[in-house]
Amino acid sequence: MTGTTAPTRAGRRPSGVARPALGVLLLVAGIVLVAVLAAVDTTQGTANIGVADVWRALTGRADGADASVVVASRFPRAVAGLVVGFALGVAGAALQAVTRNVLAAPDTLAVNAGAYLALGIVSVSGIGLPVVAQSGVAFLGGLAAAALVLALSGLGSGTLRLVLAGTALALGLGSVTQALVLLFPQQTRGLYSWNQGGIAQNGYDTILPMLPVVAVGVVGFLLLSHRVDALALGDDAARGLGVPVRSTRIVAVVLAVLLSAAAVTIAGPIGFVGLCAPALVRPVARTFPTLHRSWALLTVSGLVGAGVVLASDVLLRAVVSGDRAVTVPTGVVTSVLGAVFLVVMALRMRDTGQTTPLEVSRIPGRLAVALTVAALAAALVGVVVASVLLGDAMLLLGDVSNWLTGRANQAIAFILDTRVPRVAAALLAGAALALAGTLVQGVTRNPLADPGVLGVSSGAGLGAVLAVTAVPAASTWGVAGAAFVGAALAALVVFGLAARGGFRQNRLVLVGVGVSAGLTALISLLIVVTDPFNANKALTWLSGSTYGRTWQDSLPVVVVLVAALVLVVPAHRELDLVSLDEDSPRLLGVRLGRTRLGFLALSVLLTATAIAAVGTIGFVGLVAPHAARSVVGRAHARVVPVAVLVGAVLVCLGDLLGRTVIAPAQLGAGILTALVGTPYFVWLLLRTPRSGQ
Predict the structure, then answer these.
(1) pLDDT digits over 207-263, tens only?
(2) What value does the mean pLDDT take over residues 511-517?
(3) Same fold flag, 19-348 and 366-382+422-687
(4) Does domain 366-382+422-687 correspond to CATH entry 2.120.10.10?
(5) How far apart, in Å, are the Cα atoms of 670 and each of 20, 462, 507?
(6) CATH topology assigned to domain 19-348
(7) Keywords on this record (predicted)?
(8) HSE-CB for 444 with a 13 A CA cutoff
(9) DSSP code, position 548
């Protein structure tokens, strides 16, 4: 036996010696690369300062002008990139380790959204806080958001639940913060730009107070590393080793949020670094087993995170001119890169979420369906009448009658000439978004699908914002056309990538979330770099506001909505078959690919024209068809009219509340629908079984 085992041990010994040496070389190479990136970053900017000037400033031999620029701006920016990237890389690696979820990160746990809202509330209150106190506020907001997401998604329940819960909560919290920005523009000045994330600094006043916070978080994780290693064996095995599983996870989440809060305080939310850094390290761990130990994984992930932030800043300033680069946040670059990374991960991930037929509800009789439609029609009439009569000026039905007959006085005529087109735009947009959501859910057989979640709304938003900011005098049809092009391109990417394997649930939603995140970052970029007038206009438009809408704005929606209803209503049986499974349509002579493509094209058209008319309005395409199916069953001959009515009521009611509750100030209908849609989405997610995720 000895003779047979000795050669094996002798053969393994060189690799055992070489691997630690290679690991050290890898670590040294990473440190050198980060140092080089930091050095290059200090040479970039509006002032013409080269490597020699930086070296002279570092050794104290530079003249006054060069030294002041390098010491006061360039060095702090590079240090901020190092600290922020390292903190986010460690936080992301720790969250993924304790949740055993490769998509856990400060972004997907809504930590950034919670911190953003908490700091927004402090800004509105007018309370001036020192840097450490601001970090404490961001920590509390981020911790509350992360705790809620983890409670909703559960630990070990799969990537899809966590991403959906985090995305929904981030949308809801972001809507509240957006409302604060619009209602209190003076108190929240600069908050939107800060939310995009930028490492530009003016000295070390913000960085130095956060260094002890980052040190506490990193040291805490290193002390906790042996427990995290035990968690990798499974909860039962960890308990068998005497590890308190629940308290370990709680402490790890708290430390991760602490690191994220420090990063947010220094540079604002830098997106997706915590997701990308551990994912880049994970494949290397196959060659270097030491990286399977959590202390090594956390350290290297932090180093990679620093490299990602610095490389993004270097890339930004290399591509964009010096003067323009000052206004472009680094977080936009990391968000776009992270969105691409998320899409790639979604495509490579093994998808176990099956595309099953939409949920089957009780099937009511025709009388019950007729009564439901009648009740919704009456509710819509009531909401429309209230929307016409209520607002900054209260009117009577007699005033409306006089206006219709041309006998109203000038003041009332002016009010109704501006108010009625707004009501019509809200009604039509709600109906169009509801029909679009019905088609998307039917084609993908996914009750969680929605034009907003799947990136179609963000594509339309990018096209429309580009038209609004680049061509302020763009016509209604021009904005609608730009929105359609953006929505079509986004839909082509999302549905094209998800079509492989039959629109399976995990892949479709994760690709949609990734594309939506990237397009949202580009929208933020356009708003940040444009002039203030167009930026305010775009921000108001993104809130789903009907302010200033005319009959011409609603015309494209009318055309597309009527055409879509004419095409969809007679084809309700084909939509029923497509939403059933892959085989039934083919057996009954339905051309599955052609029919699916036609329905998706209609949904893109509906979404684009609705967003071009009233701006971004979320969750309507999710809530309306789901509510319709829960009441009248799964047959689309019943679902379509009910969903259209529900969507119209939701957006009209949101617009009415936004115009009246805090009058004379106004909130966009999109903010109100997000506040209603977020808890509904969470409730729907809780009802979805956790198995098969």
Answers:
(1) 888 899 999 999 999 898 888 888 888 888 888 888 888 888 888 888 988 898 888
(2) 84
(3) yes
(4) no
(5) 55, 16, 27
(6) ABC transporter involved in vitamin B12 uptake, BtuC (1.10.3470)
(7) Cell membrane, Membrane, Transmembrane, Transmembrane helix, Transport
(8) 33
(9) T
